[in-house]
Amino acid sequence: MFFLTLSIFTSIFLSANSVQARKFRDTGDNEKLGGTNAELVANLLDVHNQRLQSMDSNNIDFMVLSCAQPCIQGFSDPVTAENMAVLVNNELAGTISNNTERFGAFASLAMHNATAAALELQRSVKELGFVGALVNDYQQSGADGQTLLYYDQPEYDIFWQMVSDLDVPVYFHPRTDIQTILNLTYAHAPSLKGPAQEFAVGLSTHILGRFPKLKIIVGHLGERIPSDLVRIDTQLKRQATLGLIMKQNVTTYFRTNIFETTSGNFAPELLNFHINQIGLNRIMYSIDYPYINIPDGTAFINGLARTMKKEDHNSLARDLAIEVLRLND
Ligand SMILES: *[C@@H]1O[C@H](CO)[C@@H](O)[C@H](O)[C@H]1NC(C)=O
Ligand SMILES: *[C@@H]1O[C@H](CO)[C@@H](O)[C@H](O)[C@H]1NC(C)=O
Ligand SMILES: *[C@@H]1O[C@H](CO)[C@@H](O)[C@H](O)[C@H]1NC(C)=O
Ligand SMILES: *[C@@H]1O[C@H](CO)[C@@H](O)[C@H](O)[C@H]1NC(C)=O
């Protein structure tokens, strides 16, 4: 069986010129994430052994690897960010180059300079064979790292034009907010940060009106947005005078340009609700390893096979991903 899962590649950078696994969540609860911290680090880096075995034993044919948040979006200095992106992309390409039947990759991009981002995406797709890009929400910039860049501004048109021309998806992944925001919003209740609440929305759809062919992927069942479409669209209409430049409403974009993945949001009833809201033809199965254990994904997708029609299940587990990522091209 061919299951597609989106996975997270080895992050983060402990030195200026080598890509290393980060010391992953050394909080003592790594048991839940599949073994000890040392096992996890080894598994992140050594995709050809443990990872592949785990894919085989969980019926996963293909994994897309990418750099865990915040990755390049955390580098405020443009030159460092651009060099790091090239380093990560080259390293990842080298890692998977002898097994592209089982592994694909999303490019990491420095988003300081839209032209440079466009060119690195083009190189990653054309020369390295990557299937798209993944950005971890806003790009930090400025001397103090406190200026946040969003990609709906006109200066990014050149980037989105390249995305359109290459016909590859861009995955919007959330990131942990900068400390300033965390202090202002979550100082009273740190347990709410991250996926519990903070990640709920990190997506701007403004660009879509200008680039009708764009394919945007949003994880974790659309970061909850499809659960709230009517309210969002009603409110956006009211606030249009504040400068809304979208041509369509968010509901429409979720049916024309945006795809979502399950990534760890393994809630069958919520999935059914989303299928009703945006259509099964917008939803792809993914796991979100290493934040989520691979067998948990298997239990979810296998469980759905009991209630979904075979062709619907195939669409969710593989067919749509093959189409969006153009794996058969
Ligand atoms: C690819 O290269 C890695 C590292 O040398 C190796 O462990 C792995 O077995 C190779 N995979 C294939 C399919 O040749
Ligand atoms: C942005 O990147 C392009 C392509 O590398 C380069 O020609 C241009 O000078 C850069 N712009 C700035 C402001 O650094
Ligand atoms: C966040 O709050 C902590 C604790 O009060 C403080 O030490 C730190 O400087 C603050 N950081 C920012 C960026 O505001
Ligand atoms: C969104 O736009 C579509 C197409 O114009 C329209 O049919 C629908 O009623 C709108 N939804 C909301 C909630 O405004």
Automatic annotation (TrEMBL):
GO MF terms here are: carboxy-lyase activity; hydrolase activity
A GO CC annotation given for this chain: cytosol
Residues crossing the lipid bilayer are none
State the SUPFAM superfamilies in the record: Metallo-dependent hydrolases
What start and end residues bound the annotated signal peptide?
A: 1-21
* Superkingdom, natural source: Eukaryota
Q: Where is the Amidohydrolase-related domain?
A: 73-306
**Alphabetical GO biological process terms:** secondary metabolic process
Q: Which InterPro entries does this entry report, sorted A to Z?
A: ACMSD (IPR032465), Amidohydro-rel (IPR006680), Metal_Hydrolase (IPR032466)
State whether keyword Lyase applies: yes
What keywords were assigned to this record?
A: Decarboxylase, Lyase, Signal
Question: Can you tell me which family this protein belongs to?
Answer: Belongs to the metallo-dependent hydrolases superfamily.
The protein's name in its UniProt record: Amidohydrolase-related domain-containing protein
Classification lineage: Eukaryota, Fungi, Dikarya, Basidiomycota, Agaricomycotina
